[in-house]
Amino acid sequence: MTASPLREIVLPELDKRPVVLDLATGELVPLPPVGPELQKTQQALRELGKGDVLYDVDLGDPTLIFLRDARSDPPGEETGEPSVTGHLIKSLPETITVVTKEGRRYEVTILAANERGCTLKYSRIPADRGVSGGGPVEPEKPQGTLEFRIAPRSIDLDAGLIETLKQMRTHGGDFPESDFAWFPIRTDLTGQPFAIARESDGQAYVLLWNRPPHVILASQAWGLESVYRTTDASGRAAIGLTFNDKGASLFDDLTAAHVQENLAIVVEGTVVAMPNISAPLGSRAIITGNFTEQEIEVLLAVLRKNVGRDSGRPAATATAR
After folding, report:
1. How far apart are CA 253 and CA 275, in angstroms?
2. 18 close to 37: Cβ distance less than 8 angstroms
3. Which of 64, 173, 233, 255 is the most buried (most CB within 10 A)?
């Protein structure tokens, strides 16, 4: 699949001209006269079936607002209304990825922004675009995706199989028929005992299981009761998780079956922590690591999108380091 043509457009400020940009067509769609409330605008655009991004300047802050379930990557600022997020423009030029409700990805470069309008240059990203040089293909991940996957140990796999796996192009669970998949990971986490790692174009990857019962996937209809800031035993910033009933049951089963193995905590397709399971874990866990303050804030925002799917129950606390 080839990239779509590069488009450049001036998106007027909302109060100057009430229009919204439809990324697929490049059309500036007139906004329905529904008043200033973004939630009503969002609902009107759902019914209209067009429009993804509008531009607003409020109290001097230039902001791109994503509607109809479109979102930015990295995640934007939550506005408080359902399915409405905003990206505060802080520096120019700035390039972000916008993902529409239909799953299409667009690379958007913000060239200029003032009280009159915002100049954007954008094109659709091919679905098969991945790491340069023929590396693994990046999968589409739902916003807020949290998964738990066991990392197979080098002592448990045949050396020939490991070498074959290192030639695999599967990445991030793209191919569910495969027993294993490679996931990007921070380099400082690849030294876990018996972890199977590789490098492609400067990015470290770790081999993880890709099938139940060695995984807890987002598609298994579980969730979290809460996500909160906490500290570990050493006083370092950490993130606490409390699972709902289904999540607690899955997590307990997974950790009980894999004591003394490495558990990869995967957030939006990237391994953010990989603790060793010392004992079965209950309905709570703590994600610890050498996180910066910015990393903690990003993880909190992403993980909180998993909160509130079902009611849950309290249980003992277990720490993942």
Report:
1. 17
2. no
3. 64
Instruction: Give the β-pairing of 197-200 and 203-209.
Output: antiparallel
Q: Write phi, then psi, for 63 (nearest 5 degrees).
A: -140, 135
> Residue 177: what pLDDT?
47
Domains in the chain, please, with CATH? Answer: 7-124 (no CATH), 136-321 (3.30.1360.200)
Q: Which residue has the tokens 């094109």?
A: 123
99-114 confidence digits (pLDDT tens): 777 677 888 889 889 9
Residues 6+ apart with CB under 8 A from 88: 61, 62, 63, 76, 77
Give start and end residues of each alpha helix (H) in the chain: 38-48, 159-165, 245-257, 293-303
d(CA 238, CA 277): 17
- pLDDT tens profile 170-229: 555 444 446 888 888 877 776 777 889 888 777 888 999 988 889 998 778 788 899 999
CA 233/CA 208 separation, integer angstroms: 28
Three-state DSSP at 155 gives helix
Strand 53-58 to 61-66 pairing: antiparallel
Element (H, E) at 42: helix 38-48
Residue 279: φ, ψ to 5°: -165, 160
